[in-house]
């Protein structure tokens, strides 16, 4: 009787395992046939919301600190001396400033990522105004989210809201937009040069 129950239990485990494998294979097949470009707008919105949720999660952590031990590794001092010997001491000064304000640097990097996702989301919107002024809307929404995030931190034990953190958030979002604008201008210039080469008779 015990052997029968044991065999039955094993059979159920094997059956459920096979169902699980079948489910995984169906998901893989669905991903392979999923038209990502067709659903790019929805994917970008989902990624932006998830990223914003990740920032919210970090803000909800009490006494969250950014590790700065990397700056204390011996090789970092050697790199600093090497940079100074090449006349690049200003890079060392920038690194020292980043080390002293590493939490602000972390804010900038986090909101740089948010700025990238916001820009791409607005750029792929169905609304013409949002697409045309995607950089402006990205900065506005990014700063508004930064304000709400700092307000939220004021209720978290061990965390405080800070105008300097908000400024770092805004700088991160803005840098992302500046880079996008530079890329757009470079592409326009390259396209103009290609058109000129393709039709030299216009000159």
UniProtKB/TrEMBL annotation:
The chain crosses the membrane at residues 12-31, 43-60, 105-122, 129-147, 167-186. Keywords: Membrane, Transmembrane, Transmembrane helix. Residues 46-183 form the VanZ-like domain. The keyword Transferase does not apply. Pfam families: VanZ (PF04892). This is VanZ like family protein. The lineage of its organism: Archaea, Methanobacteriati, Methanobacteriota, Stenosarchaea group, Methanomicrobia.
């Amino acid at each position: 009787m015990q052997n029968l129950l044991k065999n039955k239990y094993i059979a159920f485990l094997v059956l459920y395992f096979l169902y699980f494998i079948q489910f995984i294979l169906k998901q893989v097949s669905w991903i392979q046939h999923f038209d990502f470009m067709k659903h790019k707008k929805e994917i970008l919105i989902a990624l932006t919301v998830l990223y914003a949720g990740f920032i919210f999660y970090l803000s909800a952590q009490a006494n969250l600190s950014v590790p700065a031990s990397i700056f204390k590794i011996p090789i970092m001092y050697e790199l600093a001396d090497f940079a100074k010997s090449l006349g690049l001491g200003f890079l060392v000064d920038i690194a020292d400033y980043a080390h002293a304000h590493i939490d602000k640097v972390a804010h900038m990097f986090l909101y740089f990522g948010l700025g990238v996702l916001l820009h791409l989301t607005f750029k792929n919107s169905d609304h013409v105004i949002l697409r045309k002024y995607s950089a402006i809307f990205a900065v506005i929404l990014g700063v508004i989210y930064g304000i709400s995030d700092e307000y939220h931190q004021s209720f978290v034990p061990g965390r405080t809201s800070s105008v300097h953190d908000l400024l770092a958030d805004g700088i991160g979002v803005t840098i992302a937009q500046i880079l996008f604008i530079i890329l757009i201008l470079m592409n326009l210039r390259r396209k103009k040069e290609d058109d000129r080469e393709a039709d030299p008779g216009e000159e």
